[in-house]
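Researcher: Re-running this chain for the archive, since the previous output was lost when a drive failed. Same request as before.
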Amino acid sequence: MKKYFVYVIRSLTRNYIYVGISDNPDRRIEQHNKGYNRATKPYLPFEILLIEEYSDRLSARTREKYLKSGVGKEYLKDKFTPE
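Model: Regenerated structure tokens:
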């Protein structure tokens, strides 16, 4: 059975957090760090903040949409911004 992952990465050089979904987060994050993704290329390099595993794509997509929402972005900011 295929698993899906929601991942959150943060730019080490700028104030930018990216939320994505993949069935292979290690490969996907490596692609981000190599500049293969046009949306994230200007923000290289990245560190991993969070990887969550889901048993189906719909659950992972629901979580991804939440984390990309205003409330979700506030949650990530609160959780990962040093005090």
